[in-house]
Design brief:
It is a single chain. This protein has helices at 2-60, 62-75, 80-83, 86-100, 104-116, 122-139, 143-156, 164-177, 182-188, 193-199, 203-215, 220-235, 239-248, 254-273, 277-284, 287-297, 299-313, 318-327, 330-365, 367-421. 85% of the residues lie in helices and 0% in strands. The protein contains 20 helices and no strands. The protein has 424 residues and is mainly alpha-helical.
């Protein structure tokens, strides 16, 4: 019986030794795979390092990239001859950014919008951009919004408004006269300006009326819609309006509107109807038109309209005066300094971009190969992980087997001693 117990221990010991041999083989395989993985990891670490450098460069040159993209858009609108002056145009755009404390990229985008609005003479477009900056600074808005308002007015009043400065002066007077601002005027002026120009209402009178109506609590959008409603009722009068106008003996037409102006035309209606609200409502047709008309015909409305038109007559220089008030502040000087730094970023960034462009082309052209290598790296990494897990499992099993063998050996000795004791 003692020999049988000893034999059992020997069998268990042999199995442990076999397990150790298998573990050694697996360890060698894992070591080989790990070495290969380390080499691949080193290679991809270098590639990752290149990615980090690329990220740093992009951060440093972000302003240059944005400006380059914005100017590239501008070139799509330039003629072949104009493109030859791109260097000069670019420097002028950057100079305006520095002068008015605005990012060069925003200047380039505004220039694009101006040219796209039909001002394809670059010299005139730059003049409009300059005035847009003044309107933006004095009106506390961005250059893009200001440019949008100016180009809308210039398009509507083509041949009537002679310059962007004239349009800007009117907008400043309108904003100061009522409860509105340059941003909202720029946003909503397009709702009425084309019709106003067509029926002969001057930009000055349109701005004066907007000042009166917003002063009396109508927001800018409602104001512009209301003024449009008045003009549309004259352009396309209802049957009832035409019959009433004939009974009253008045000329209810755009011809009369052009001759008398908006305020004079409304005063004619008020006199002819003797202020009869029902008859005025019949002539004007819609609630949208009635509200602004009644406001303009009120005692306070008439007085404010007169005052605003006087201001329009003396508006020359209004834009420059508004700009002067804003630019003499710490905030504006800081914005100028910020714009100077933006230009510096562009200068430095352009140097970086020119230097790395060939390398970027190579990376882009070969990124397919890089992707394929990355896929192989992932497979090898997975092998290493599995090898490590296998090695851990074998090591755990070996330890367990060794402990089991020790227990069996101890049990065998105990059994042998017991048998001896009983004389078996």
């Amino acid at each position: 019986m003692t020999d049988l117990a000893t034999l059992n221990i020997r069998v268990q010991s042999n199995q442990v030794r076999d397990g150790h041999k298998e573990l050694d083989k697996l360890a060698v395989s894992a070591g080989t795979a790990e070495t290969a993985t380390r080499r691949l990891t080193s290679s991809f670490a270098k590639l990752a390092g290149m990615g980090a450098v690329a990220g740093a460069i992009k951060s440093t040159t972000d302003e240059a990239i944005k400006f380059e993209s914005a100017m590239a858009k501008v070139t799509t609108l330039l003629s072949t001859e104009q493109e030859k002056q791109l260097g000069v145009i670019t420097e002028r755009v950057k100079a305006l950014g520095s002068a008015y404390g605005a990012a060069p990229a925003s200047q380039a985008q505004a220039l694009y919008d101006i040219i796209a609005a039909g001002h394809d003479d670059v010299s005139k477009a730059m003049d409009i951009l300059n005035t847009s900056n003044k309107l933006a600074i004095g009106g506390i808005t961005d250059v893009g919004t200001a440019a949008d308002g100016l180009t809308t007015i210039l398009a509507a009043y083509e041949g009537q408004v002679t310059s962007a400065t004239q349009a800007a002066d009117v907008m400043f007077i309108a904003a100061a006269a009522g409860k509105t601002d340059i941003e909202n005027l720029s946003k909503f002026i397009g709702k009425v300006a084309p019709i106003a120009a067509q029926v002969g209402v001057s930009l000055e009178e349109l701005g004066a009326a907007a000042g009166v109506l917003t002063k009396n609590g109508q927001n800018t959008m409602i104001t512009m819609n209301g003024l449009r409603g008045i003009m549309m009722s004259v352009m396309k009068p209802s049957k009832e309006a035409s019959e009433l106008a004939e009974q009253l003996g008045i000329d209810y037409s755009t011809t009369a509107l052009k001759a008398k102006g908006l305020q004079g035309f409304l005063m004619m209606l008020n006199d002819a109807t003797r202020g009869n609200e029902r008859q005025l409502a019949t002539l004007l047709g819609t609630t949208e038109a009635i509200l602004p008309a009644m406001t303009l015909l009120s005692e306070g409305g008439i007085a404010s309209m007169t005052q605003n038109m006087e201001a329009m007559g003396n508006m020359a220089g209004t834009t420059d005066q508004a700009v002067a008030k804003v630019t003499d502040t710490v905030a504006f000087r800081l914005s100028q300094l910020g714009a100077q730094f933006n230009n510096l970023q562009i200068t430095i960034g352009n140097g970086f971009l020119a230097g790395i462009l060939p390398g970027l082309r190579v990376l882009n052209d070969n990124f397919g190969a890089i992707t394929a290598t990355a896929a192989q790296f992932a497979k090898v990494a997975a092998l290493v992980v599995m090898s490590k897990l296998g090695a851990w499992a074998v090591a755990s099993a070996t330890a367990f087997t060794t402990k089991t063998a020790a227990i069996l050996s101890s049990n065998a000795a105990t059994i042998s001693a017991t048998l001896t004791e009983v004389g078996y």
